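Worked Example 4.2. Read the sequence first, then its structure tokens.
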Amino acid sequence: MQTKKYIFHVHGMHCASCVARIEEVLKDIQAVKKAKVNLHTGEAAVEGEWKEDPDAIAKTLTSHVEKYGYTFSLEKEKKERKWNEFLYAFPIAAAFIVGFIFLQKIGLVNMITTGEVGYGTAFLIGLIASVSTCLAVVGGLALSLSANYAKEGSGWKPQMLFHGGRLIGFFILGGVIGLLGGSFRIGQTGNMILGGLVAFVMLILGVNLLDVFHGAKRFQFTMPKTIGKKIMREREVVHGITPFMIGAVTFFLPCGFTQSMQLYALSTGSFIRGAGIMLVFALGTLPILSLLSFSSVNIKEKSWNGIFFKTAGLVVIVLALFNLVNVLVVSGIIDPVFNF
């Protein structure tokens, strides 16, 4: 049978891990000989031995990836910006930020001040990550593992190992990053640069969550796809301590929010501080990812998801701006702007 190549539009992607997951799933399809996905163009070049017409092939490919939130089509996705959703998102985000500042004022949480990311902020960023990039990245992995656990009749233990491995892995590896930062003696200039990078990464992530400036994706930081692919390949293994190890190495999956916290952990120069920030961030992601593991919750299917993501995007943008302003204040470039 002659090999044919088709270009399909892929809907639902927003980061490098989406690319890694889709390519790994496509490789498992018998008819597919080669597949390459491009995040920036939103296209997938698929080569294989096909009897069906392109429309039927797109439906076949979709059947393999739709459980992760992706679809294939011959038509380019028409992006609706849905500006009216901001009528709800702006007041909700404003109320959230005001409430968060109030909690900071009475000492219950820490906003980003004096160039530092507080534990409360790290937890909040974890919560937002768990319903955005982590939902597709780690959430997809958790769903895949859960399905395999069910097939094996393994019960809840492997899932507990996965989430436990993730918390412990983030604590230990976050501490290692903190130590590395200390050994490099980053100094004030280095801290300013890293703080600026944290703010930039968060700002781009927030803008992408708004889903109105689609060209912003090209500025998002990514890790090599090979790292994500290596972890995705382990999704079929459910025995022994493998779930624990997979949970731990999700630290290296290319999730933008995780990368922003890793950059901050590096700037702390401290094992305890770096470990604490990454652990609290992982704890923030735990509720939603646990629900995904045990009940297959998917917020992307909800009718109000646009308002939710725009609200989350606005909150992340505000946090990024707080971070950027305070980095500039600590560096002596500008005078204090906020008095929280």
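Now turn to a second chain, presented in exactly the same format:
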Amino acid sequence: MLDYRALAALAEILRRGSFEAAAHALSVTPSAVSQRIRALEDRCGAVLIDRGPPLRGTAEGVRLAAHLDRVRLLEATLGAATTGDAPPVIRVAVNADSLATWAMPPLAAVPGLLDLVIDDQDHAQHWLKTGHVVAALTGDARPVTGCDSIALGRMRYRATASPGLAARHFAAGVDADSLSRAPSLRFNDKDGLQDRWVMARTGCRIALPFHRIGSSQAFAEATRLGLGWGVNPESMVAADLAAGRLVDLGPDLPLDVTLCWQVSRTTAAGIRDLTDRIIAAARAALL
């Protein structure tokens, strides 16, 4: 049987980033935390923490910490507690644009402490496959092994630019030549929305010049300020388009991104209310 006091120490170290912070949270000494981790590693026959820097869990360490959270969630669902009084940590992967537009209110229903992993919908399945999260918004409807996949709808995006930038770079039209010269925006290295829109518009793969801005709100604001053109959620820029603060570079060419909610079957019952709220919010916000 696993030592749940040691598992609690492991989970706190990985969540808080240090042995000292974990010891403070558990009201024990750092030495006691170290002893628990050594005993757990001896029992498992594996290193559970990469001391870094930065400190982080190994694959086995992350798996064991996730196991503790699943047990705590099950206990909370059953109204029992054998692993202490700590609430379960619910790790969920959500893409930044959904978080900025419609997904935050339903996440308030999380039955424990929320631990958000913010990642592109096309990459969120990785977090499910590795056991880092119990649920995720994904762009792929194919369920990860051990998960159920629920179709939510389509999130619509618009390729937008400030009137000034459009006048400077697209006066002669939005084509391969003008797009190859105009500054664009990119959320991060995983952001392929601008490239997808350009391919749909021109049929060409273009090495776009870009500014990297890793915030949905700042991304939209940079578009308004004319730093570059970018693909923004329609709901986030609808008022700007109506007021003329932004122009649509392709009114007849929206970009729709399919979203699904994938949830681990082992924890589905424990986060049923969260799932129901995600579905309801998505039906109100998505196509």
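Notes for the reader: The chain has three domains: 4-86, 90-152+257-285, 155-256. The first strand starts at residue 49 and ends at 50.
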